[in-house]
Amino acid sequence: MLTNQLSLAITKTAFPVLLLLCFCNLSHAADDNSYSANLSQRIKEKEAEVQLLMNVKLQWQANINLFQENRNSKTELTQKRQQLKDMLDEIQQLKRSNESIKARKDILNHQYRSHTAQIRANAIGEKIESLKSTEGKEYKDVTIKEIHPQGILISHATGGVNLPFDRLPQKLQQRFNFDRDEAMKFADQAKQRQEALRKRLMKLQAKQLPKQPMPIPKAGANEPDKLLLLQPQKKPAQVNGRIAVRVIASKRNSKKIEITARAGTEQMRIVVSSNRGGTTRNVEARQTEAFNLWVGSKYTVKAYQNRRLIDEQSSLRKRGL
Length: 321
What we know:
By secondary structure, the chain is of the alpha+beta class. It is built from four helices and eleven strands, in the order αββββαααβββββββ. It has a four-stranded antiparallel β-sheet with strand order 1-2-3-4, with no helix packed on it. Strands 8-7-10-11 form a four-stranded antiparallel β-sheet. β10 and β11 (308-314) form a beta hairpin. It is rod-shaped. The termini are far apart.
């Protein structure tokens, strides 16, 4: 009986324990399953976060690379700007050097022309016992009358001649600084003046021609009429040129004068002489030219037309010169 009661008590006691153990086992199993599910979910979330962080990292790395490229480009651009600035400074310096060289060249050219003009002016009137051209022709008792860019005008024992510079001896070419380009320019200017003069004369002749042709006398006309037609027409009245001279600058034993020449109906030749030398200048018919010249303290300016002296001004005759 006691044994049955003990068994029953043990049974009553063990059964709840077994139930509790079973419940604990079941609860533990349920907790493991829940924890496992939660852990998987968290792993997935962490993997998503890791992937997001990797994407952010890649984006930042791209930004860093772009920033580095921009910084390199900025550095390169700064270097290019500095190089450009240096090149611009060098160009400005070269321009200033070029302007300085050009100004110096103009000064030297002006000094060269002035020196050449002075040498040629001083040679006017110089006498040469014998002058032999490059063609072998010899001239005796030569006197230099005029020197122009194309050559010289001389008088000799049997007459006069205009010798081009390429027919002069080499010594005279070098002495008078003859230049082929200057000679060609002088010739072109002379042709232009001649062409302008020819056109002007044609216009004047066209104005002077009668509007209607003169009638031709018929046979049996009066003899006085025939004689009148046969008489040569009178030439237009000849007009002489004039010159005006004034001093525009002066220094020790020399003066700078301005000569204004107005030619008449024929070409006028101006001859300037002074104690420092002289020069000559031709002015075409009906033309007006003005030029400056340095002369000595005593000078004379003469104008010739058709080898006649038509005007003269001198430092001793003109008051204030």
